[in-house]
Amino acid sequence: METLVETLNTYVQYTCQILAIFVICTGIVKALWTFVKDALFDALAAEAIKESRLELGHAFSLGLGFLIGSSILSSSISPSWDDIGKLAAVIVIRTVLNYFLLQEIKNHNEDEEKKN
Asked: pTM for the complete prediction?
């Protein structure tokens, strides 16, 4: 039974990492498309940059969530104190990054509301 749990845990970790890669890459492509479409065809370069950054922010935030989940799973089975310390450091760094990404998204949304 223990081997089954460890194997399942490993597969879920890899799935979370693959999902993070997929979400981040999709966000990059979507942000690039938004920028190219708006900057080249609508001559709204400044707005295109803001919209592209917003797309990237959402993708990075979701991707970081998947990576945090993967990190938690990686040290959930028989963790040592060293594993717990590394996990704490990774979670703190990723949470701080996520916080600032969400602040950027919030500021962008508030700017958009003021314009309208």
From this structure: 0.76
